[in-house]
Amino acid sequence: MKQLYIIANWKSNKTASEIGEWFDSFKNQFDQENVDLTNKEIIICPSFPFLKLANDCVSKLNLPLKIGAQNISQYGPGAHTGEVNGEQLKGIAEYVIIGHSERRTNFNESNDDVSKKISMAKNYGINPILCVQDENTEIPEKVSIVAYEPPSAIGTGNPDTPENAESVASKIRQEGKAESVLYGGSVTSENASSFSSMENISGFLIGGASLDPLEFLGIVKNA
Ligand code: PGA
User: Which terminus of the chain is more exposed, N or C, with fewer CB under 10 A?
Assistant: First the structure.
């Protein structure tokens, strides 16, 4: 059985109280359904101010979930107003999303920035989840997780086809640049299994559908 990663990217959504409610509701349903997570790693990525809160919810509710950040500074500690560095994230984020198309497009992140962020994450023992937009997006160094997310599929309700996603994932793996390739872009509990049943697709990066704990759990179950 291949290892699957099912990652919630909450983006700039949810307040502290909404996060508490999400975990309570996830826990409730998770326990009722006795979900088998043998080959599944579930990672929740809230906004920076709530990383500690998310860790506390997971420990308090004894949930088998990992916590990730949505960004990391390419700089270390110092005079970088507004940045959050690896030393600060270490211990509260096991993973970090890097190179999401929203950051590349809206915040002008370049391949060089992405490359520096990957090195910085690795320096601090945080696992990068590198987002690529197509098969030609630069992967500067080998990472364990790459998420293939075509921008036309993000938040549109128009996912890529499982066949095309599989072809991109297989090329990335053949190049030896990633151990696991995930798919992201309009994933739902209904279409999840059509992607995860593909040989080279090892899970999902999920935006919109991860905001609802029951829909997210549906994806976890169906993956
Ligand atoms: P979506 O977003 O699931 O809402 O399409 C995916 C992502 O941006 O990671």
Answer: N
CA-wise closest residue to 163 among 125, 201, 190: 201
Closest ligand 1 atom to residue 97 Cα is 9
Distance 9 CA to ligand 1 centre (A): 7
Is there a catalytic annotation at residue 80? no
Cβ distance 93 to 51 under 8 Å?
yes
Which residues are within 8 A (CB) of 64 and not within 5 positions of it... i.e. 6 or more apart? 37, 42
Which residue puts its alpha carbon closest to atom 6 of ligand 1?
207
Helix (H, G, I), strand (E, B) or coil at 107: coil
For position 33, what pLDDT does the model report? 94
Phi first, then psi: what are they for 190, rounded to 5°?
A: -80, -40
Distance, CA 188 to ligand 1 centroid (Å)? 10
| Cα separation, 203 vs 216, whole angstroms | 13
For residue 37, CA distances in Å to 3, 63, 148, 172 come to: 10, 11, 23, 26
Q: How confident is the prediction for the chain on average, in pLDDT? A: 98
